[in-house]
Each structure stands twice: as structure tokens, then as C-alpha cells.
């Protein structure tokens, strides 16, 4: 084997090692679930396709190492290897750098530091306006002084049906809510069937479970129907976010939304009021349960969660939430 063939073989061995490294890295991310730290689930299929292509290229590179140098006659002059050591260093370094970063750099979940830079999207308003709401203002003073419309009267009738009477000595059996009546309550706002379906699905629950599947769509729905959801009890989970202009009894239970990858992440959450708010560390994960209260600031109606129960929990395996674009099952 002459010097030129040895040089050629070294290059293909190096290429094979780099390709094998990417194959192993992507395979490990898929198997362990680390892929969700970087890509939204709807893009995972592209990663699977990429992995398949890399496996084919790796096999082709191994074949070149085994069978030796081949002669190509395509007149394109594109099959030469880098001639100088500096060119080789630059070319292969461009591939080795991201590979090394993927292997040696630890995964880091987005948290409060990024949320402060991006700003938090909250129910009906942004975090700076919501921070101005005085937590000590009585609820009656914070309500908007308007005459009840048909939707509000229906909501009041629904709540009265759901509440047992205090005048009877024997417990009164709760009357099941008619779905058609609830649907009429939300359909009058004309926000479309999609949000009407979600609103009905959420409203029918005695305690609204704002889990990962409906977190974003649920927040959007409650923003659209703020008055209708005022007084409802909800339970949700997220990381704790504090801001300097919050009162000592306020924090946000927040989640990051990822559309494609973490580079386009946005922050969504609910402003929570709790006397122990200052005791919850930033970026710690909590499960919060409480009742939604309607507030008004700068002419905006907004929902604030008055916490009745806050408990620490472990961060989920996939800390991000995504839009589903489908009404939850059971909303029909």
C-alpha cells in the first residue's frame, strides 16, 4: 500500500468514526427520551429519517475502508480528499464540534432565567400588567360593573344547579348539568367550534385538570371565556417563576411551549396568589390547586388562581407543553 492509499484510508476511517458518532448520539437521544429536550414531538419523525440516512452513509463509509480506493469517472472532480492538514482540521472540526457538544454538554431544561428574557404569557394579559393587581383588593370590587348578559345568566343557573341547597335537612342530589346548556353558554361568544368543544370539556369537570395535553389550549380557552370560568376550581403543574415587581404572595406556575425546537420556546402560565409564595424556590416544580378569580386591570379582565393547596413535585420527564390542535376526547 503506497503513501497515497494510506492517506486516503485514514480519511475514510475518520469519516466513518464521525458518522458512527452521530448515529450513536441520535440513537441514544431517541432511546432515552432526551430528544424531547430539543425537538417538539411532531418533528421526531424527521430525526428518525435522519438517523436512517446516517446509518446508510456509515455503512457506505465502512465499505470504502474495507474495499479500498475506487476510481470514479464522472468528470466532476468532487471526490478528492482534503490535501493540507489545515483544510482537514477545519472540515472535520465542523463535524466534530457539534458531536462533542452533544456528547459532553449536559442537558438543561429551560427555566426562569429564560422566562425573564422572553416574558410570560398569562391569562388575558402580560406579566407586568398582572403584577400590578393588588392581591388584597376584595373580589367584589375587582369585578366589572356590567349588566349580566344571557351567557352570564346561564352560567349562574348552572352553578346554582351544581350547588346543594342549604335549606334542606337531607342532602340534595346534585342535578347533572346538561351539556347542551353548557354548550350554549360558550357558543354565544362565537369563538369557533374548536374552543367551544374545549370549553365544554373543561367546564364539565368538577375540578379542571390542566394537564400537559390541554395546558396551552386550556389557557387559551379560559382567556377567551374569562367570565364564564371565574369561580371554577382547577389543578395544574409547572415551575415557579418570581418577578421583582410581584408581591410577596404572588408567583407564576409556568410551562415552556415548543413549536419546533427550544430555540423558539415561549412561556405560558397562571398568576397564583398564596401566602407562602415567597417560600417556593425559583424553578422548583409545584402542583397547584385553587379557585379562579376574575380581576380587572387597565380595562382587561383576567383570571388569577387563588391557591388552596400547593405541593412540591418532581419535574416531568418532558417539561415542555405543546398545542394539540385537536379537541380533547369527551368534549363531544
From TrEMBL:
Entry's transmembrane regions: 12-33, 45-66, 86-105
Residues annotated as domain DUF1980: 14-120, 196-323
Keywords for the protein's UniProt record, in alphabetical order: Membrane, Transmembrane, Transmembrane helix
Keyword Iron: no
Domain of life where this protein originates: Bacteria
Keyword tRNA-binding belongs to the record: no
One family name in Pfam for this protein: DUF1980
Annotated signal peptide: none
PANTHER family: UPF0703 PROTEIN YCGQ (PTHR40047:SF1)
The protein's name in its UniProt record: TIGR03943 family protein
Phylogenetic classification of the source organism: Bacteria, Bacillati, Bacillota, Bacilli, Bacillales
